[in-house]
Every structure is written in C-alpha cells, then in structure tokens.
C-alpha cells in the first residue's frame, strides 16, 4: 500500500474517532476513483476500446445521475413512473496509471451501483456485466492492466433504454461511488468477512468473526485470522487471534476467531455506539497479508410472536417509514449530507425505523442509519418472475436473483441498524403458490446461510385474496409482513398466535395506527411513505413528476400530516396548527378495485397557515396536532377555550370564525405549558428571508449545505401563496449544487439558478470548492433580496 495512501487512511480514521463518527467499512488498499471520468450520452461504437478517442467527451465526477438534468418530457419512455425524465444508453471512461510501487498487486474495481444493465471493460477486455442497477459489484482487472506508468482505461456502458422498467424514478448512469482496490495474493473477496454477536448479557458479549480468505498463490499458505477491537471512543479494548490454518492454493478457505468483551457499550436508538473490528490475515511469520476495517454494533434485536420487537431487552414499537432512495433534486446521486438532513428530520418526528423501498440502497446510507440510531428493514426485490413493468427486473430474476441476494446480504450484514431482511414487496408470484413458495425457500436459505442472526420477511399484498395464510406461504416467513389492511394481519396472528407479525407498508390513517399501537403482537409499521419522491406519478399524470404521499415534501419540509404523526410518535412535546381544507377518505380496508376507483377529494388536505384565499368573514376548521394533556386555542389573544387530548389520538378540532391576525395554540401537561405554535395572516410579499441550516460547507461530493429561502411580508410572516421567481447567485469558493421548491408539477431543471417559490419557499443546496467565505444571494423583482454567508472549508 502506498505510503501516501496509508497516511490518508490514518488521518481519516483519526478524524473519525476524534469527531465520534466512525468511518465506513473499508479494505486496506482501497482508494476512491470518483474524480475525472469522461462521459457521453448515447450508444457509441467502439467506446470500450483502450485507444478510443474520448478527449472531446464531457468531464464528470462520480456519483453521476445524468437523467436528473432532464428535460422533463410528457412523452418520455419512462412515463410518469420515471418522473417523465430521460433514459437511455451512456458511456463512461476513466484513465489511470499504476505506479511502480504497486507492481505485482492484484487490482480490482468496485462499484456501489450503476443504473442499469451495466457492462465494464478494462483496456478493451470485458470483465463483467450486471443487469441489476441497485447491486454493488467488484471485478478483477489484473490480467489486463498495462505496465506501470502506461495508460489504462476503464470503460462502463450503462443502459436504461428499455422502458418502462420501474415504478419510481431510478436514475441513469454510475450514480454511486467507485473505488480501486489493490491487494496481495491472499485476500478476502468482496464482503466475505462477517462480525457477529453470538451471545449478549449484562456482563459480556461473545463475538465471532468469520472470513473466507482466498489464496491466489501457487502453493498453500499457513495463515491465521486476527482482530483488534476498538471501542466507540477509538481505544483498543481487545485483540483476538484465531487458529492457524492452511489456505489451499487457488481457493477460498474459511477462517474464524472468537472472543469475549466485558460489559461493552451497546448500540441503541438513543446511543448508537459503534465498535470497529480491524480484521487482519497474517502469515506464519507474522507478515500482514490482508486487512479490512469493519464498524459493527453490539446489540440484541429480536421479534417475538406475543410482544413484537425487542431491542436490548426493551419492547419497542417500530414507528417506521418506507422511503425511496432518490434525493429529490439530486436524483439518485445523493450526497450523504442530504440523506443526513432527511433522516434527522424524520427522526425528529418520532420515526425510529426505515424500510428501504424496494431495493438495496447505497452502503453509506446504512452507515448513516448506524450512526443516527435508526433501525432498518433492508429490502431486496420489488418483483420476482411476474412483471410489474414490461422491462423490469423480472426479465433477470431467474438467472440473477440468487447472486444478487447473496451479495446483498453479505454486503449489509455487519450493519447494526439492519434488524430484518425483506425478500420482496407486493410480489405478484403469490397467486401461484408452488412458484412463490419455492422462491421464498430458495431466497430464505441464502439469507440464513449468510446471516443466521436476522429474520426474513416479505411484504405480502392482499394475502387473503391469494390465500397466503391458508396455503402455507405466509408461514414460510420468519416474520409475517403485510402491506395495509392492518386488521387482517392482526387476525392472522389471532388465528395462529405463534406468528410473528409486522406491518411492512401502511397508510397514514389514524385507524391504521391504532391497530398497531394497541396490539402487542404487532412489531410495528412502515408508513407509505416518509418522503415525497420522484416518479410514480402515473395516476396523477402529466404535469405531475413526483408522488406527494410523504410526511415531508421533496425538500424535507414537514407537512401537517407529518406533524400529526409526530403528535402520535414523538416523545417530545408537540403542538402544531393547521387548517383542514379537504377531508381524507380511508380506502385501505376496501377491496382493491373499489379502493383504486374511490374518488379522493382533491386538494392539499391541511395547510399550516392562517392566510386563506378569502380574508372575508367565514368559518375555518382548525386542527391542532398535539401529545399534550390539553390544548388552548387563542385568536388575536382571545382564548377560544381548552380541549383535552383525544383518546383515539385524533386531531383536536375547533370551528373558528376567521379574523385576520394571530392564531396561537398552547399545549399543557400537568397544568404547565410545554409547547406552542403560532400562525399569522400574511400581507403582500415584501422580502426574501435566507436561513442557513449550517454555517459551514465542505467540498466533497457528500458535503452540501442547505439554504432555505422564504418569501415574507413586511412583518416577516411567510406568504404561503407567493410564487415569485427566485434567482440564486453563489459567490466565493462554492457552487450551486441544486435548487428545488418541492413542487409536484414544476419542470424547471434542478441545476437552474432560477425557480419559482412554492408555498412561499425554496431550498438551495451549495457545495464548496475550496476554503473561504461564500455568499448565497436570492433575488426577485420587487422584493428585498435575501443574503446569507457560509464558510467553506476544503477537505
């Protein structure tokens, strides 16, 4: 390993421990190769060849989702499912040279994901292809590399031209990170090392580590596994050494070790403490042959039939949301800071669990869940052999699903946040029980072989229609999961009390929550959905580009329905005001076709403002979402009375004669004020208010800072109906990375510095390019400009 690279890795690890943020899992000898790729849209004959002339191609850095640049097109082949965004073939090429000091090393390239049907070449030699755009994969380049100092070219072809292929926006291109890995002849292949907690009690944790170690030399090698365990503060607390074994030439040999840790700090929701295993393979003379670094958590997680989910001896109701992987204006190439902002916002609403709908997410997303203390239902597939779209993964499932499933569980099994695997979502094979049951058994066997510590579920869809509870399909699962129809799942448990049950996808209606809340057997639920997401806009149709079903919008602004959920789920005092504009009809328990055909009232549901369209005298239906014992409502300082919290957790409601001014709600517990919320009637737009969510911004791909712009009146009140076009200018060492307003129907490119406000708001995301002061300015005709200053710091 180069000295400079060793120094960089050491600095990263030191910084991680000093700041209390463990770095991600990594192999010694890995280095990022995200920078300076050459890119061309469209299929290009001969682009895989080493000598192909690519000087005129566009230079891009990875991760890169080229489709998010648009344009939006009503006639896009991806349809509204893909957000009416483009799709097609694209090529990427990366030039690099190998230094002389790495002569004799084995060289691999590892992709965290490429969308989709990707092919990879090195110096014109094809080394692999992967149909699944969500899969992570590694290929060896060694036999085809040129001598040190000579040019090498990795060429990648991605292909999303076969459409429609997804029910949501899936992106295009190499949209996740890529790295080169230089290893010796003895190494563990991708994700072959597992850290497991075999026993945990109040006194100690019994740890075991297994690694399949490959010997590519011509003769057997004597070796042993060694692991140094670092505590959450970075201090060494143990070193374990395995039994010496002979690694046969040309094959992988499993090595194991074990040991006990005394009273370790546990990973938990409010204390997501992460340990690190520095796993090494040493030769008979002590020579270091291979090393990797694996963060892990020490925790006990289990599901019980009678009492649901348990974490570290505490019975916890999983209050989860399902989310798609897109990052709104960033598409599928999502900076980690954007994800962190999103997950922290959801956790503040009382969310403690995430379902990765409906495919493997980027590995750094799970790193983030580990660090934030969110548990994860980790999902593998949205379809099996029966299509949901003509060109989706069903075309590849028979040939590739075992490979994809095994790589998926191996890659993610060391994450303490993952507590359960899902092998499918609303699978359409279940009407054919022999087919479905054989697939369940095959996939479950893979998951159990690679990770015997976690249960397997799947999101059953209309199981009473396909008789899953009668024909044995449901009972093949370790934990029975069902989408919607919460009473059906409760009855399935009552009919057979040995069934462990969980709501894998659930509506946001109060009745759905009450079933889960009041049934101890229900491990929890995952709302559809936590966040508005790009695509799945076919029912609404053009001009809609995204699905507005989230607790928060596309730029993570909390909706009234999000605050309502917080009043049910959060442990902190919650008091939030809204005007009820349109009713909500619960269709979750209706027969499928009736529910689909049921006309829903059109409109936003509820609005968090005191500025209705008409300022004339009229009645408004006011709702207060609160977990306080009682709430007092005041209009312009005059009390409209106090009301107690409703036993069924419904909103506390008043009919209020509208008068312009101030509406205030105050929550009380034990007679003491614990929280309040205020809405004020807005006047004419007068200014742009700029709010920086962080005073600093970094310079890496994952480092973006959010700046909120709000159009306000002369008194500083947000004007909810303002639609003024904002123009953002960034000066100093930074660039505008994306600009969005969360609107479902706005077709402005996300990279554009101009965008109309929606609901009086928009959010700019800024990325630093060096060190120094950055000014972000927003202007609009007739409004006082909004300005904010950030400090950029080079990584």
Question: How would you characterize the overall build of this protein?
Answer:
The protein has 795 residues and is mainly β. It is built from ten helices and 49 strands. The strands form eleven sheets. An eight-stranded parallel beta sheet has the order 29-28-27-26-25-24-23-30, covered by helices on one side. Helix 2 packs parallel to helix 3 (363-372) and helix 4 packs parallel to helix 5 (433-450). Mean pLDDT is 94; it is low at 1-22.
Low-confidence stretches: 1-22
Classify the beta-strand content into a percent band: 35-45%
Instruction: Note the main sheet.
Output: 8 strands, parallel
How would you classify the helix and strand content by structural class? mainly beta
- Continuous helix count: 10
Please list the strands of the largest sheet in the order they lie side by side: 29-28-27-26-25-24-23-30
Q: What's the mean pLDDT score?
A: 94
Roughly what percent helix?
10-25%
How far is the N terminus from the C terminus?
A: 22 Å
Shape: globular
* Rg, Cα atoms, Å: 27 Å
Question: Care to give the gist of this entry?
Answer:
The protein has 795 residues and is mostly beta strands. The protein contains ten helices and 49 strands. Strand 36 (630-635) and strand 37 (638-644) form a beta hairpin.
Key traits:
795 residues; mainly beta; 6-stranded antiparallel sheet; 14% helix; disordered N terminus
């Amino acid at each position: 390993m180069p000295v400079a690279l060793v120094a960089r890795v050491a600095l990263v690890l030191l910084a991680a421990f000093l700041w209390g943020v463990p770095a991600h899992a990594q192999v010694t000898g890995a280095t990022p190769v995200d920078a300076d790729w050459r890119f061309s849209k469209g299929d290009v004959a001969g682009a895989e060849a080493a000598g192909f002339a690519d000087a005129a191609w566009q230079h891009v850095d990875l991760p890169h989702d080229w489709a998010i640049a648009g344009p939006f097109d009503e006639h896009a082949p991806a349809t509204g499912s893909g957000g009416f965004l483009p799709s097609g073939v694209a090529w990427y090429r990366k030039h690099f040279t190998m230094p002389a000091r790495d002569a004799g090393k084995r060289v691999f390239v590892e992709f965290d994901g490429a969308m989709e049907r990707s092919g990879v070449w090195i110096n014109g030699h094809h080394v692999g292809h992967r149909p699944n755009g969500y899969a992570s994969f590694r290929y060896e380049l060694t036999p085809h590399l040129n001598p040190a100092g000579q040019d090498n070219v990795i060429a990648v072809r991605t292909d999303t031209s076969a459409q429609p292929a997804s029910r949501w926006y899936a992106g295009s291109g190499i949209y996740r990170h890529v790295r080169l890995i230089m290893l010796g002849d003895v190494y563990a292949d991708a994700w072959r090392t597992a850290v497991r907690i075999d026993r945990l009690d109040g006194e100690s944790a019994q740890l075991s580590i297994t690694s399949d170690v490959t010997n590519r030399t011509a003769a057997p090698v004597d070796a042993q596994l060694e692991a140094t365990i670092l505590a959450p503060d970075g201090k060494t607390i143990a070193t374990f050494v395995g039994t010496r074994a002979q690694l046969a030439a040309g094959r992988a040999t499993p090595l194991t070790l074990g040991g006990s840790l005394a009273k370790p700090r546990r990973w938990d929701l409010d204390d997501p403490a992460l340990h690190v295993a520095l796993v090494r393979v040493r030769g008979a003379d002590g020579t270091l042959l291979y090393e990797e670094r694996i963060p892990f958590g020490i925790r006990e997680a289990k599901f019980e039939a009678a009492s649901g989910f348990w974490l570290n001896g505490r019975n916890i109701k999983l209050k989860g949301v399902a989310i798609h992987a897109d990052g709104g204006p960033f598409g599928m190439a999502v900076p980690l800071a954007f994800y962190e902002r999103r997950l922290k916002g959801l956790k503040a609403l009382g969310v403690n669990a995430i379902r990765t709908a409906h495919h493997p997410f980027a590995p750094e997303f799970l790193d983030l869940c580990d660090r934030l203390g969110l548990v994860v239902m980790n999902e593998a597939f949205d379809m099996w052999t029966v299509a949901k779209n003509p060109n989706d993964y069903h075309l590849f499932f028979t040939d590739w699903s075992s490979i994809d499933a095994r790589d998926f569980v191996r890659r993610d099994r060391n994450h303490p946040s993952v507590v359960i695997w899902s092998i499918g979502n609303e699978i359409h094979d279940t009407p054919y029980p022999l087919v479905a049951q054989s697939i369940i058994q095959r996939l479950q066997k893979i998951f159990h072989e690679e990770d015997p510590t976690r249960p397997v579920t799947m999101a059953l869809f209309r199981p009473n229609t396909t008789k899953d509870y009668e024909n044995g399909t449901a009972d093949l699962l370790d934990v029975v999961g069902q989408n919607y129809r919460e009473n059906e799942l409760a009855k399935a448990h009552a009919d057979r009390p040995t069934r462990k049950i969980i709501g894998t996808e659930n509506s946001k209606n109060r009745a759905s929550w009450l079933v889960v809340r009041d049934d101890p057997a229900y491990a929890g639920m995952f709302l559809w959905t936590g966040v508005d997401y790009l695509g799945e806009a076919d029912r609404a149709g053009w001009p809609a580009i995204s699905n507005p079903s989230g607790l928060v919008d596309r730029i993570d602004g909390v909706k009234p329905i999000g605050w309502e959920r917080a009043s049910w789920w959060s442990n902190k005092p919650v008091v939030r005001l809204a005007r009820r504009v349109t009713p909500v009809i619960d269709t979750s328990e209706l027969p499928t076709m009736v529910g689909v055909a049921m006309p829903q009232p059109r409109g936003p549901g509820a609005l968090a403002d005191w500025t209705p369209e008409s300022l004339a005298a009229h009645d408004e239906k006011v709702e207060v979402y609160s977990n306080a014992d009682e709430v007092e409502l005041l209009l312009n300082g005059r009390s409209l009375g106090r009301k107690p919290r409703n036993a069924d957790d419904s909103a506390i409601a008043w009919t209020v004669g509208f008068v312009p001014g101030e509406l205030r709600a105050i929550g009380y517990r034990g007679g003491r004020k614990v929280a309040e919320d205020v809405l004020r009637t807005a006047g004419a737009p007068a200014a742009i208010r700029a709010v920086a969510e962080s005073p600093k911004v970094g310079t890496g791909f994952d480092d973006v800072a959010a700046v909120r712009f709000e159009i306000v009146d002369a008194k500083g009140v947000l004007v909810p109906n303002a639609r003024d076009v904002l123009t953002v200018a960034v000066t100093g060492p930074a660039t505008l990375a994306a600009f969005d307003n969360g609107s479902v129907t706005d077709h402005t490119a996300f990279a554009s510095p101009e965008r109309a406000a929606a609901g009086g708001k928009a959010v700019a995301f800024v990325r630093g390019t060096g060190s120094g002061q950055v000014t972000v300015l927003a202007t609009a005709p007739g409004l006082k400009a909004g300005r904010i200053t950030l400090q950029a710091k080079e990584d």
